[in-house]
Specification:
Two copies of one chain form a homodimer.
Chain A (H helix, E strand, L loop, with lengths): L2 E4 L8 H10 L4 E3 L6 H7 L13 E4 L2 E4 L1 H12 L6 H25 L12 H28 L15 H16 L7 H4 L1 H11 L2 H7 L24
Parallel strand pairs in A: 1-2
Antiparallel strand pairs in A: 1-3, 3-4
Chain lengths: 238, 238
């Protein structure tokens, strides 16, 4: 039975971290809500389901419903061959994925500092201040951290954890893609500052299954409804 | 060898979710940074450690370093007898803990919508707007979700997951405590709206080990340096 991924249609969003793992592994899956969100909303609004998710993305695997990106990848990683074999290293991978989750909140809130239920246009002034603080402080702090993790990996600086490709590597590929889309000016010099991260990004992008996926219609383009939005007025580089 | 918890001194903060689990289980642990943050900063700034945490809290158990609240509880839960015995339910517990983590970010950002490196006083206007949106939209959405999870638990509405006490129950106790401290007006009617959540809160607060801990000097009081801050101007109830 194929895995069922439930996520909003129209944006790569948080669903993308799950898609990249499923695609890299060549797993059999259905991206359920690409046609209609009815089945997804039925689960979310269910009054009988014992393990209701708070929000998409979530994964259904037979009777199991698993929600939250890091939790889904914790569950899928070993099944897809994308988690460290050493169980102790799986906590390191999970910790890194949770740092990525925190980073995504910071990235999202650059354009929505006040409320998710208001339009960007209605919180533009606060967004400018928040985005400037993000670019000056949070962006280098997070990227610098991920660069250090790569450089301090005892198995070599081509993997975030252990000596094999993991879902954390795939997720960081997508974060770099998104940041380059949203903040091209702020990111213009990133290769020089974060060489190991840049090399990881390029290596993931060259993997056959990832390349095939990125060129397919299953891959959704970044746009201004998602987490990574390109608003030139928020992309300051000084 | 005792567990070593590393977290900032002076606030309950995110470290509290780990403390509550260790205290309920009567585990042997050291709250390392209560005396000095030197040992904590040494690990965070290490240039050789293979699994550097991005930020506190983190836990050291012998050679293992585990970071992020949900990840630490995932690791400790089974050892402390505070996780479901059924492995599949552990993903449900982890998903709930991650929803609590997201909720905490929303709570924190009511007083820091613009930048963590600026004082509250310098982002007070944005904070008022964000807090009003939080109280009107996010607070009922999250509390309503947790109430539904309790009411739809096939093992009964006294536990968040499965039929035994878990770290998720302890964490929700602390969230309710914090919300009542920070937003007494917005929370004044919460018992009526969320009866199962209120009963869970009271039941956890009556557990002998928790009672003893709350009365001890190991428990830090809420204050205006933490996640849950009481600023009357942010606590609107209409």
């Amino acid at each position: 039975m194929p895995y069922e991924l439930y996520y909003w249609d129209g944006i790569p969003g948080r669903g993308e971290f799950i898609r990249l793992a499923l695609e890299e592994a060549g797993a059999d899956y259905v991206d359920v809500a690409r046609d209609s969100t009815a089945a997804m909303m039925k689960i979310i609004n269910s009054r009988t389901e014992p393990h209701i998710p708070f929000a998409p993305p979530f994964l259904r695997d037979g009777e199991m419903i698993v929600s939250h990106v890091a939790n889904i990848l914790l569950y899928l990683g070993p099944k897809l061959g994308l988690a460290p074999k050493d169980e102790r290293l799986r906590y390191a991978a999970n910790g890194l994925q949770l740092t990525i989750a925190d980073f995504l909140v910071q990235i999202h809130d650059t354009h929505h500092p006040i409320s998710v239920s208001q339009y960007y246009e209605d919180q533009k002034d606060a967004a400018r201040v928040r985005a400037a603080a993000f670019i000056a402080e949070r962006l280098p702090k997070y990227l610098g951290y991920f660069e250090r993790v790569l450089q301090q990996n005892p198995h070599g600086d081509t993997r975030m954890v252990g000596n094999g490709l993991s879902y954390v590597d795939l997720s960081l590929f997508h974060v770099i893609e998104g940041l380059r889309y949203a903040f091209p000016r702020a990111m213009q010099d990133y290769e020089r500052q974060y060489p190991a991260l840049d090399a990881l990004h390029d290596a993931v992008g060259q993997r056959p299954n990832i390349k095939r996926y990125l060129a397919s219609r299953r891959r959704l383009a970044f746009n201004e409804s998602g987490i990574f939005r390109h608003y030139p007025e928020l992309d300051t580089s000084d």
